[in-house]
Amino acid sequence: MKPMTITEKILAKHAGVKEVTPGELINAKVDIALGNDITAPIAISEFRKAGAKKVFNKSKVVLVPDHFTPNKDIKSAAQVKILREFAKEQKLTYFFDGGDVGVEHALLPEKGIVVPGDVVIGADSHTCTYGALGAFSTGVGSTDLAAAMITGELWFKVPESMKFVFKGKLNKWVSGKDLILHVIGDVGVDGALYRSMEFTGKPIEKLSMDSRMAMCNMAIEAGAKSGIIAPDATTKEYMNKRAQRPYKFYESDKDAVYAEVREYDCAKIEPTVACPHLPENTKTVSQLKKITIDQVVIGSCTNGRLEDLQVAAKLLKGQKVSKNVRLIVIPATPFIYNEAMKLGYFDIFLKAGAVISPPTCGPCLGGHMGILAEGERALATTNRNFVGRMGDPKSEVYLANPAVAAASAIKGRIAHPDEVSK
Amino acid sequence: MKFKGKVWKYGADIDTDKIIPARYLNTSDPKELAKHCMEDEDAAFASKVQPGDIILADKNFGCGSSREHAPIAIKAAGVACVIAKSYARIFYRNSFNMGLTILESDEVQDATDNGDVLEVDMDRGEITNVTKGRTFKARPIPPFMQELIKAGGLMESIRKRG
Ligand code: SF4
Questions:
Q1: How far apart (Å, rounded) are the C-alpha atoms in residues A103 and A106?
Q2: Predicted complex ipTM
Q3: What is the CA radius of gyration of chain A?
């Protein structure tokens, strides 16, 4: 059989064929189809227009109203209501509401709803996050979601793969977020257009699951269809307590064909920041001098996980947030919220002067819970810094890891974690 | 199929937050969305665009989120078609799925100014700048996508399959 990448193998299996080739169009079975409060209402309306009565499988269609919840206004409340009623009518196993809701891409892996070897589609561009578990997952639109909800299948063009090989040891304060920002800075916001990004190398093997998810989460920011990391012992340990279904590990063949291979020496990668208004505008923290900020957001499907809150808590312990800065901490899921509370992080955040938000996408997409005014500047652990992303079109967003975010909140300007850590 | 319309010319990496900012995503009503189309890139667009106008952009048009609200807003604003050097993949997929005509071409951009009139001949895959009197080739639409268009979009094709 011809050598294949992990992505090609997963797609071939789900298309019921022995092998696939990049560029080929296939129909593949979908293990999980996901929608949120922005995208699912359109999908549900398409579902009804098509005359469909039942979803293909009630435990494989997942709805997570996380963007504007707790409902920020009447219109959002109406959107969420559409999801709630559909979930009830279809008896969906996985619908999250009220105190159960969390940011979708943190929630699904945490609950073991997505598992290694899956094909996952979501009407949300950051669906690519689950590549961290060794699944093929990709963002689609609402019409695609409707089609998958009805048929349990979807058409895909098999993507070419691009391999990113990391070498050496990670510098202090460098996390998965910095690696992916560095890569996007290198290849650009369309540098991996239509492709799958495969991250490999010893430093990747050593990354925690949280850090791996932060990396795959931002594959879309390089234009990629998906990001993926071969599952290993870390994945197994993560899945063991969670997986709701049996799962399968795939790996790339040694002689698999890649459209491009890039190597990075981790010794050269420092804490990295993406400057306005594109994720590719990267600089190292040390290159940025005296950039004052009005708001810091620690949260989102990129960096709102426990490891992220832990790093932030470590730096904020016994410190005060600058008088000129509003620090907003958003644990991504109820589980993370609870753990952070038990571990004493909330005490640290509150004493430092932070606001702790319930799990929500909130300010990440300029929804609510921390919108910027004209001329304001934020540093966020989120994934997009487009014009107007967090509020007024004349506001600015810088993207960084949670350690840089915590240090910057204390200093009132973009700061290196070394500046505040004793 | 032929279109003729005035050009609204934009640069590279026009993201979905520019096409339709998230602050308006608490609805999916096309008319509401159209009112704010391109707002953060060009505040005048939504009030001045005429039915049949054409958006001409550089590379990676529609990057960012998966919101179908983006092609919906463009379509509801009356835009006949979008021409760009390349598209972000989810936007590309969404446009075909929901029937917004999009074309890829590398050459029209440099030879066309904002406000020029373009004529697009879908069957011949040709784009003519009527103002400047020059004709360009569009990249052919992949056969699979043509099938989707013929079927009337993804949902129509599923309906037909039963
Ligand atoms: S946290 Fe931000 S990027 Fe992630 S799903 Fe929510 S809005 Fe999208």
A1: 6
A2: 0.91
A3: 20
